[in-house]
Specification:
The structure holds two protein chains of two kinds. Chain A is mainly alpha-helical. Chain A contains 13 helices and no strands. Chain A has a domain of 210 residues: Orthogonal Bundle (ABC transporter involved in vitamin B12 uptake, BtuC). Chain A is globular and about 65 Å long. By secondary structure, chain B is mostly helical. Chains A and B meet through α2, α4, α5, α7 and α11 of A and α3, α5, α12 and α14 of B.
Chain lengths: 313, 295
């Protein structure tokens, strides 16, 4: 009997928990890697702006070509994102507003348009809930194999998209790490060294947008923003090199992602209620809390070390 | 004045409660425009976004506390108090996080948003798994829904917004000095720190008052867009604040009317789109800024 329940448990793990966790970790890989570059350039706000402005494009893409049309989703998002960039530049040039305020107007307006499209046109055709837009639908990414098919056929399409995005972002970041690092730390030096910031900067923004759009449907705009900024800032006080920064951010982000999912999915059952909590929200909450904790740990370790060395001296 | 015309012309077409909704939204819009102008000048506008997102966990905690105490979850005063507490906590933590090495104000905003809005998402999912929570209508707070407001909600919104606007009028000279020239204000003997706290309090009060109608996610647009549109027109500060208040009231009432007639469009989306449209027009109509040419 214990063998049967063990088998059930294993099956539930493989069919429900593993694919959801894998999707969340792939989103972490894609977003946190690009997020490291953004944070080093002090441009976390840009990620926030992109994550909000692509919504009307995604909804319009689904409306034109039907749900699950990835090409339409990416083309729509690209058009919306490009339009938002053009408008934000126009606002920047024509007004004396601080850049955050200009961006704030543009991305709020685009997000508002997306939500309005979703509510008026999309209720039936798009099957994208305005709540999911913010808080994701991680919980639905379990494997649902067709009755006579291979289990791979049951993997949610969001998971495949995330895997492709994570692979692309990792490969590009490794290939161009020297150029991107030069761009982040000394733009002028990069220009003199022949790295051409004018070509590399838009390319970087484009890849960042790809990572964001790929993650958007699965994890929602809240967790996208959290994944872009928090892992890199968790690593900031401890990393002495670029490689350490990426390693620590991905490792800490991974641990917190797994912990957040487990807390949301299984802690309520352990406490006796049947409903699970929002996983994307729980992961974002842990990531946000971990940044000040990480800085406190540095201060703590420094204060532990100092008295000893003084005593020895 | 435009807002008053909107009320007068549309009231007979709709239900009995509509004029009350329109009046409340006009007062909220005017407050958002006026307070937004000051926040924009003090470069605090994105703090309004943080405050708005951070009010969600406070509302949810207040809802749960209300249920537990037997007051009913949807007690407007309790929800408002909860929202203010977490919103103030978030705005308090942003400058502290921004001071940490390598974080900066952009990073601090992202981190604070992740924590507070994440907590809100978790609590919202907890509330909605209960039967009473599903009927509580807290999900309307995300994008705003004027049609779901109760009489008590409207009274609370109006009181808070009116109080904020009265405070702006009372301390207008001091706030203006603070926002445009902090050092000058200090020289004049104005207590900068308490005044800064007042501005923060006004910001949080406005955002929290607008939650029901403009929604948590989009309320920041109602703080920035009317203020930015009014600034593009230029003029004395009094003129800019008044124009911003008028644009805010117009967009808010127009948003309510549009979302009523279009049925499913959330009120917050409609308000944001109207306000952003007015901003776009005023920006394009304003004489373009060229170096060396006095505008």
């Amino acid at each position: 009997m214990s063998g049967a329940t063990g088998q059930d448990l294993a099956r539930e793990l493989l069919q429900f928990d593993m694919p959801v966790l894998a999707s969340a970790l792939l989103a972490l890989t894609a977003c946190a890697t690009m997020g490291n570059w953004l944070v080093l350039r002090k441009e976390s706000m840009t990620g926030d702006a992109i994550a909000h402005s692509v919504l009307p494009g995604i909804v319009a893409g689904f409306l034109v070509a039907g749900r699950h049309s990835l090409v339409a989703m990416f083309i729509g998002a690209a058009i919306a994102g490009a339009l938002a960039v053009v408008l934000a530049n126009l606002v920047q040039r024509r007004t004396r507003l601080e850049s955050g305020a200009g961006l704030g107007i543009v991305f709020s307006a685009f997000f508002a348009l997306g939500v309005a499209l979703l509510e008026t046109q999309g209720a039936r055709q798009v099957d994208l809930d305005p709540g999911c837009v913010l808080f994701g639908s991680l919980e639905t990414l379990f494997i649902a194999p067709p009755p006579d098919g291979h289990w791979l056929a049951g993997v949610a399409h969001e998971t495949w998209v995330l895997a492709a995005a994570a692979a692309l972002v990792t490969i590009l970041s490794l290939l161009f790490s020297k150029e991107l690092a030069a761009l982040c730390f000394d733009r002028e030096h990069a220009r003199v060294a022949g790295i051409a910031p004018r070509a590399l900067e838009p390319a970087m923004l484009f890849v960042t947008s790809l990572a964001i759009v790929a993650s958007f449907e699965a994890v929602g705009s809240l967790l996208v923003v959290a994944l872009l900024a928090c892992p890199s800032l968790i690593a900031a006080p401890h990393a002495r090199s670029l490689r350490a920064r990426f390693t620590i951010s991905l490792a800490a982000g991974g641990v917190l992602t797994i912990a957040g999912y487990l807390l949301a999915a299984h802690a309520p059952a352990a406490l006796g209620t049947s409903h699970s909590l929002n996983a994307a929200g729980m992961i974002a909450l842990l990531l946000g809390a971990a940044v000040p904790v990480s800085f406190m740990l540095l201060r703590l370790s420094a204060s532990v070390r100092r008295p000893i060395s003084r005593r020895q001296a | 004045m435009i807002a008053c015309c909107a009320i007068a012309s549309s009231a007979p077409l709709m239900g009995a409660n509509t004029s009350l909704v329109l009046a409340a939204s006009a007062i909220f819009g005017a407050t958002a425009g006026a307070v937004g102008t000051l926040a924009l000048a003090r470069r605090r506008s994105l703090l309004a976004d943080v405050a708005a997102h951070a009010s969600l966990p406070g509302v949810c905690l207040a809802f749960l506390a209300g249920e537990a105490l037997g007051l009913g979850g949807r007690n407007p005063l309790l929800l408002l108090a909860g929202a203010c507490v977490t919103a103030l906590l978030a705005t308090w933590s942003v400058p502290r996080l921004a001071r940490l090495r390598g974080v900066g104000s952009d990073g601090a905003i992202a981190v604070t948003l992740s924590f507070f809005f994440g907590l809100g998402a978790v609590l919202l999912s907890l509330i909605q798994s209960h039967e009473s929570g599903a009927q509580g209508g807290l999900n309307h707070l995300l994008y705003g829904n004027a049609a779901a407001t109760t009489h008590a909600d409207l009274m609370t919104v109006t009181t808070v917004a009116l109080a904020a606007i009265v405070l702006v009028a009372l301390f207008f000279k001091e706030l203006a000095a603070l926002c445009f020239d902090e050092q000058h204000a200090a020289v004049l003997g104005i207590a900068v720190r308490p005044l800064d706290l007042l501005l923060l309090g006004l910001l949080v009060a406005t955002v929290v008052a607008g939650m029901q109608m403009a929604g948590i996610v989009l309320v920041v647009a109602m703080m920035i867009a009317p203020a930015a549109a009014a600034r593009a027109m230029r003029g004395s500060l009094t003129a800019v604040v008044s124009v911003a208040a008028a644009i805010g009231a117009t967009s808010a009432t127009a948003g309510v009317l549009i979302s009523r007639s279009a049925g499913t469009v959330p009120t917050g989306s409609a308000m944001t789109l109207v306000a952003a449209g007015i901003f776009l027009i005023s920006m394009l109509a304003a004489p373009s800024r060229r170096r060396g040419v006095p505008a």
